[in-house]
């Protein structure tokens, strides 16, 4: 992919840096792999807002992506497509028996390339193998946490993890955050880096492009009243008046660790904030 900058014909265009979509080969998705997305506006089944700042946005269709990569056989890449539901590109692959599936497109994979899944397939970009069969130093993405559940780690644009070591049925993997984590060696991963590397360099340029994505405006707590937010009140631009920032509901915010799953702490050799 690449980026394109715009001439400052308007205030919104002045700072816009957008995707040029030159790596996308078609704008017509595979109809058999489309699903429905029901919008909630951030509300739960009782109609209460549980996630703020969501609503509106352009209508989307869900692309059913194969994160498990459990189908054996050779598949040919038919197209590289844009997915409005994720930052990475997706690739439509066609198996020898005529079945089509979407996969997260690895960086460097082109139309006509062949991808495979299995224990003894080549260690090349786009192929999926169990972690136990990958040499140390291999760059991977779409990594399973539970065998057979499908990839859950390193799936967003430009992310990549690295196989560090194998020991006693576990594989040590360095995740994109810098965390060092042990995973069962029977978990699968896809070789290579996720596509759309320049996504992090894009600039929306104007608020309207955020609205198209279904993100509604956010109001700072410091401009609210004391009854609406702990940071509110005061004359003019006042400080928050407390040792640390809080959420709208009085809970500590910005940097407070919220991880509660102590059961899996034994699999983490180095935390991401210990870098």
In short:
With 275 residues, the protein is mainly beta.
Characterization of the model:
There is one protein chain. The chain has a single domain (3-200), classed as Nucleic acid-binding proteins (OB fold (Dihydrolipoamide Acetyltransferase, E2P)). The chain is 4% helix and 26% strand. The chain has helices at residues 11-14, 207-212; strands at 3-5, 17-19, 34-36, 61-63, 73-81, 90-95, 100-104, 114-117, 128-130, 139-141, 143-144, 151-153, 161-167, 170-174, 180-184, 188-191, 268-270. The protein has a seven-stranded antiparallel sheet, with no helix packed on it. Strand 14 and strand 15 (180-184) form a beta hairpin. It is globular, with a radius of gyration of 22 Å.
Residue ranges: pLDDT <50 for 5 or more in a row?
none
Count structural domains. 1
The tally of helices reads 2
Mean pLDDT: 95
What's the number of extended β-strand segments? 17
What general form does the structure show?
globular
Q: Report the sheet with the most strands, covering strand number, pairing sense and barrel closure.
A: 7 strands, antiparallel
Helix share, percent: under 10%
Name the CATH superfamily classification: Nucleic acid-binding proteins
Strand content: 25-35%
Write the SSE topology.
Layout: E1 3-5, H1 11-14, E2 17-19, E3 34-36, E4 61-63, E5 73-81, E6 90-95, E7 100-104, E8 114-117, E9 128-130, E10 139-141, E11 143-144, E12 151-153, E13 161-167, E14 170-174, E15 180-184, E16 188-191, H2 207-212, E17 268-270
Antiparallel strand pairs: 1-2, 3-4, 5-6, 5-8, 6-7, 9-16, 10-13, 10-16, 11-12, 13-14, 14-15, 15-17
């Amino acid at each position: 992919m690449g980026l394109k900058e715009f001439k400052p014909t308007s205030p919104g265009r002045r700072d816009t840096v957008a995707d040029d979509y030159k790596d996308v080969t078609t704008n017509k998705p595979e109809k058999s792999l489309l699903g429905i997305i029901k919008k909630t506006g951030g509300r739960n089944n009782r109609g209460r807002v549980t996630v703020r700042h969501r609503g509106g946005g352009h209508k989307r269709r869900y692309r059913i992506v194969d994160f498990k990569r459990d189908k054996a056989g050779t598949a040919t890449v038919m197209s590289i497509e844009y997915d409005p539901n994720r930052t990475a590109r997706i690739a439509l692959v066609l198996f020898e028996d005529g079945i089509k599936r979407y996969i997260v497109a690895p960086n460097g994979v082109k139309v006509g390339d062949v991808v495979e899944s299995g224990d003894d397939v080549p260690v090349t970009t786009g192929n999926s193998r169990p972690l136990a069969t990958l040499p140390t130093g291999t760059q991977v993405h779409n990594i399973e946490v539970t065998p057979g559940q499908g990839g859950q780690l390193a799936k967003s644009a430009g992310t990549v993890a690295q196989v560090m070591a194998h020991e006693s049925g576990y594989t040590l993997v360095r995740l994109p955050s810098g965390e060092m984590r042990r995973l069962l060696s029977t978990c699968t991963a896809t070789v290579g880096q996720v596509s759309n590397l320049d996504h992090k360099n894009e600039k929306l340029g104007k608020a309207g492009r955020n609205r198209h994505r279904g993100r509604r405006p956010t109001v700072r707590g410091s401009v609210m009243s004391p009854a609406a937010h702990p940071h509110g009140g005061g004359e003019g631009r006042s400080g928050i008046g407390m040792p640390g920032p809080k959420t709208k509901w009085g809970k500590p915010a910005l940097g407070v660790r919220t991880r509660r799953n102590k059961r899996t702490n034994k699999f983490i050799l180095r935390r991401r904030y210990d870098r």
